[in-house]
Amino acid sequence: MIGARVLLIDDDPDFLKLTGLIYKKAGAQVITASNGMEGINKAAAYQPSLIILDIMMPGRDGFEVCEEIRRFTNTPVIILTALNREHDMLKGLEAGADGFLSKPFNSEVLLARSRAVMRRSEQSNIYQVPFYYKDDRLKIDLEKHRVLINDRQIKLTPVEFRLLAYLASNPDKVLTFDQILVNVWGSEYGGNRDYVHVYISHLRRLIEPDAKSPSYIQSVHGVGYIFERQDIKWMSSPYKMPSASVSDRIGI
């Protein structure tokens, strides 16, 4: 992480000190903020490469801070969660977070997740081939980074967009949890199925006519998910992620 600028936002001075040392040893420049308002101001002033944000803070909590930060920057944000993690993840998604990490954590996991979200942020606009999906309701334009429902553009975070693009570019094939994790989040997230479940749940709310009875993203119990094309009009070359291989696929 040499050369990276990391902003830590937490009201716990011990956390700021110890976590700051982890990043400094990895070669990063560390900026700290002890409350939400200070964090917002420093995010705007210093333009960090990465923001680590605690949820539980007096005054503005982490969700409010993340929403405010998203008004002026797409800097990757990792939210630190504790109890009720799935609920925290859903709220974090709505606020615009890029990743989540439960306290307590070890330094190796923290750095691995940090590198992963920063790498994904750098690669977010790098694609190997054009991709376009269109049916009577849903349009996905990879080149323009747009998703439209009934010709109205919907707002997706970079992670949500990558997830939808990966699923839609491998239609009618079962994609396992591990395939999705590696290709959308990176190998550092292997085994974290809760990421897939929560993001899929949120994505369904955004694109499905009825999230409780999905048409596009179907569950394959214990295995993964499958994207089902709906009266498709046309779709171009398969979408390829710029990082991991997608050669292993399960067909049913």
SSE blueprint:
Layout: E1 5-9, H1 13-25, E2 29-33, H2 36-46, E3 50-54, H3 62-69, E4 77-81, H4 85-95, E5 99-102, H5 107-123, E6 132-134, E7 138-141, E8 146-149, E9 152-153, H6 158-168, E10 174-176, H7 177-185, H8 193-207, E11 217-220, E12 224-227, E13 234-235
Helix pairs in contact: 2-3, 3-4, 4-8, 6-7
Please provide a brief summary of the model:
By secondary structure, the protein is an alpha/beta fold. The chain has helices spanning 13-25, 36-46, 62-69, 85-95, 107-123, 158-168, 177-185, 193-207; strands at 5-9, 29-33, 50-54, 77-81, 99-102, 132-134, 138-141, 146-149, 152-153, 174-176, 217-220, 224-227, 234-235. It folds into 2 domains: 5-123, 3-Layer(aba) Sandwich (Rossmann fold), CATH 3.40.50.2300; 132-235, Orthogonal Bundle (Arc Repressor Mutant, subunit A), CATH 1.10.10.10.
Report on this model:
There is one protein chain. The chain is an alpha/beta fold. Helices cover 38% and strands 20% of the residues. The strands form 3 sheets. A 5-stranded parallel beta sheet has the order 2-1-3-4-5, with helices on both faces. Helix 2 runs parallel beside helix 3 (62-69). The protein is elongated, with a radius of gyration of 18 Å. 37% of the residues are buried.
> What distance lies between the first and last C-alpha atoms, to the nearest angstrom?
42 Å
| Main beta-sheet strand count, sense and barrel state | 5 strands, parallel
- Compute the number of structural domains: 2
Low-confidence sequence ranges: 237-252
Structural class: alpha/beta
